[in-house]
Amino acid sequence: MLIGIDVGGTFTDGVLFSTGQILKTAKQPTQADNLQCSIFTVLDELLQGIEGSGVKQVVLSTTLVTNLLATGGGEQVALILIPGPGLNLHSLGFFPGAYFLKGATDFRGRIIEPLEQAQVEEVGRLIATAGRRKVAVVGKFSQRNNSQERQVERILKENYPHLEIIRGFEVSGQLNFLRRAVTTYYTAVTREKWAGFAAEIEEAIRERGITVPINILKADGGTMPLEVSLRYPCETVFSGPAASVMGAFALTMDRQTSVVVDIGGTTTDLALILEGEPLYASRGALIEGRYSHVRSFALRSMALGGDSTLRWDGEKITIGPDRLGPAACFGGPAATPTDAVNLLGGGKLGPLALSGSALGKVASQAGLTVKGFARRVVKLINSRLEEGIEEMFKSWEQEPAYKIWEIINKRQVGPERVVGIGAAAGAFVPALAAGLGCRALVHRYSPVANALGTAVARPTLALLLHADTEKQTYSLNLEGITGKFNPDWQLTEAKELAREKLQEIAARRGIAKYANRYEFFLEEQFNMIRGWDTAGRLFDVGVQIASGVIEEFKGVQP
Amino acid sequence: MKKKNINSGVHPPAQKPPVQTGLVFFPAFDWAISPTHPEREERLLYTRDQLFEEGIMDLPQIRQYQPRLAASKDIARVHFCVPTVGTQATEAHLIAAGGALVIADALMKREIKNGFALIRPPGHHALRVVHGNRGFCNINNEPVMVEYLRQKYGLRRVAVIDTDVHHGDGTQDIYWHDPDTLFISFHQDGRTLYPGSGFKGEIGGPLAAGTTLNIPLPPGTTDEGILFVLDNLVLPVLDEFQPELIVNSAGQDNHYSDPLANMSFSARGYALLNEKLAPDIAVLEGGYSIETALPYVNMGIIMAMAGIDYSHLYEPDYREQYLQEEQERLNILKKTVHELHGIFQQRHSLAAAARQKAGARVQRKRQIYYDTDQIRETQLETLKVCGDCPGYLLIDSEASGRKVSSRVCCINIPIQGCSNCQAEARAYYEKMRKDSRGHFDHLYLQDRTADVYRQYNYQTKEEAAIE
């Protein structure tokens, strides 16, 4: 049996899944100030009459970190940057409170400017005076040479041993200093609160007789063991939308191109599955308006949902962005898109009269019949969603490419299917699909697909290796790992090393079982020519355990 | 500096002026002339690392675009490719040119306020007739873009400022007879550097005199010297010429660390140059100091075009004194600037006098050497002088090299071509098509007025329109 629990903004959903079927579902309103409580209630509902020992996997998707970041509820963190030559981050207003240090490292990992001990000491004094205990230290190109980040740590620790230092090179070794700074900073901000939350969750689950490892859903639709999440709490942002995408994936499990439409109360999230593979955001998750190194699905959130309030502004119909309550047909106070669909569908969702009278009020302001108004609302929603979908495909097609073959072999795909997720999917998705000229999939599990996707998601791990044969070193994007690289090694050996390291890290993280399912997604080699001779080679290799579902899951019955 | 609104009459005024800078970054990581050639896969690798690590593409000021393949027709608007467009323009060339076209479209659609096509392979040594690769170039990206803009959006007056350390002889050749294109190149003195041309006396064809300006810079010229030329010649001339579009043919080999040249320009100098020049579009040309210069210079150009503070940008070995210019060099530059400004101001009278003197036609005979492909070309160019338009062009070109041996006849009707010239040139093409003397292997018609490009193979007797 598998358990998946998705803590959403409004509701917490859970499923208990076994041999091709959902055995049980549970739904509870989410208590924003006590997520644990929502989780335990759902968990208890699912476990009623079930032996905890029969549970083989538990996966949680939670909004804790997202909430912490949105409300500023995390720790106070001092950010120290070693930017070197380039953008003037100070004048750009990037992290207004950041401390800037002298010192610089270049793209080959050469120190091109030393740190200044006195300046680091002075910054340490300012931080200590301000009462900060946590410090994020991030240098440009620190993944190619982390010595300056380490040096800053050493100097700070000498004078202020109580400071906790989070180093950028350990959080992410991918290129992009700004995103590394953002990710490191927010990691420092959320780590402690997340750890407290994780401990409580673990204890509660163990109390219920479940002994299997607990996994946390990440923004990339993969899972990570709870203890790994302690180091990388930011990976859990946007796991809600990721749960929906994995739900759509679990419902389809084929090589078709789908638009995933998750219709919530006030928003609709759009995502794409291109020829069976969920599409990732090219820039990483946007945290508080800043791009990060957190890998996430490409998502588009539209400010309209099943419970959005319908109004007439004197010229046109407006939808949302607010929600006054549930749809009128479910006893809510105002007309909503759900009422429009209910009216046109002849009352399949709820009492026709309730929808009719709520819609009637707005329709009369607009000078329309109730039916005419409802039709307009549905048309408006569809056209907005269609626009959003079109933009998603367009921006995917316009993703930059850096090689000739990428341009020549550019895929062109269009939607074949709209997969509806969420309770309201059945009401909206068929018409939307018809408008797009493709099929609609509204599965009986659509309302709980997010929890299903959470339950069956498998671990993911993406490793990037950068090796420099002239400097005889390599570095990974993960855990700040660096090492020696034999100058005679070729791409084959670089790939072999990357694979080995992936499997090592997977084993250490308790996901060794999936380590054989690796795939290479990047293979680049460059000869460094100095004069007329080859001075060395640079390799960039990417290998990953891609997102997908666990082996035990073979799909659902229609 | 005032500039004509490039969109006047083409598009209705948009509500908000565009604020972003467009960027096509196409490093062609799978293309090289040869493994150890300066134009190899590695060239923009460190630029990639620097741009990506910097995160500049994440800033709201920047909008990144994907390049596309230019069509053969886009190439044929500019070049006579021997024997065909396909043999001279590989996929890499079509994507590089296509990258410039993407930026051009984005600019005209007012999605961006300006744009930088950071592309390779480069193109400014590719002449009008192309038998092979010259100075690392086959296809000249800026003219391909400019002619596309003229065709699609009806632009007329365009300025191309070549800031590469090498003379932009290809672009000069293509616009030699065009009075509507102002071509200015400043470069290391041709007596000391490839391609050995670009002297002060090269001022354009007789009917377009003064719309080509060449500023040879003494070796060692620094930021101060180059900015002096910019302030005292380039900007005033642009102000007078009033182009609808300014293109920076942006080579980066004036940099003090470039291995193929001997100048002393810095990354910050490049940034300042682009801030002052304010090109609508910059297109990357040369620059081979791939570790020490390119990562910083490219950043500088992007930052300057996007209006981002570049005061924190510097090369690791940058020293303030690189900016200082020697008095002797400044004196030389002052003299050059003065002379050339005079020529520019007299351009109308110079052209009128030349027209008078020329009679019915003007010819120039040239030897052209393709250093990369080791081809020798002999070219006889005949301009039919016309009272109503810049006149049509006939080129008799014979090339021989290790792998190449052919003689071609090329006919160009300029975009401003009058109806008489159009008729005459087309008739000449038809006449030549029936020519049975066996002198030529191929015949080409580049009809810019009708946007029609034809080629005829004398051996197979096949004619084709280039699409």
Q: Can you offer a commentary on this structure?
A:
The complex is a heterodimer of chains A (558) and B (467). With 558 residues, chain A is an alpha/beta fold. Chain A has three domains: 77-191, Rossmann fold, CATH 3.40.50; 255-454, Nucleotidyltransferase, domain 5 (2-Layer Sandwich); 461-545, no CATH class. Chain A contains 16 helices and 27 strands. In chain A, the strands form seven sheets. Chain A has a six-stranded mixed sheet with strand order 3-2-1-4-11-12, sandwiched between helices. In chain A, strands 13, 14, 15, 18, 21 and 22 form a six-stranded mixed sheet that branches. A five-stranded antiparallel sheet of chain A has the order 25-24-23-27-26. In chain A, a hairpin with a 5-residue loop joins strand 24 (473-476) and strand 25 (482-484). In chain A, helix 2 (64-71) crosses helix 7, helix 4 (117-129) crosses helix 5 and helix 10 (337-344) packs across helix 11. Chain A is globular and about 80 Å long. The two termini of chain A are 20 Å apart. With 467 residues, chain B is an alpha/beta fold. Chain B has helices at residues 45-54, 72-76, 85-88, 91-108, 141-153, 169-174, 223-241, 267-277, 294-306, 327-345, 347-358, 419-433; strands at residues 21-26, 62-65, 80-81, 114-119, 129-130, 158-162, 181-188, 212-217, 245-250, 281-284, 361-370, 375-384, 393-401, 405-413, 442-447, 452-457, 462-465.
